[in-house]
């Protein structure tokens, strides 16, 4: 195919030389044949060869154009798929960013609540400790009073009074 295209190109160049000359006279080639015997028209075999070459070139170009169109259509289809995928990914990324912002706000609120609960827990813990200390002090006082009461009640009181004291305990 390459040799045919080069040959066709050569014939096209040779055939177009008279067109590019600005003079009104046809170009003169100084070949071995005298100018009187040379014809102004190309031989029929050369014309047929040139036309066949041009026909093959045209068919090859048409096949190349169709193949290229198919490739371009395939590329556009892939680009459309890519564009749709990119749009979907952009939408998902936006939704994720919105979710992330909501999570950040929720985290801030939860941290604030956590700090409040921590403070309340510390207050409750300190109050519980003070209550437990007061309870132990009260138990100590009650125990000491019971001992005093039992010592006093043994010698001075009657049996009914002792029974009342025990019930009061």
TrEMBL record:
Residues 1-23 form the signal peptide. The keyword Signal applies. Keywords: Coiled coil, Signal. Residues 96-148 form a coiled coil. This is Uncharacterized protein. It comes from Ilyodon furcidens.
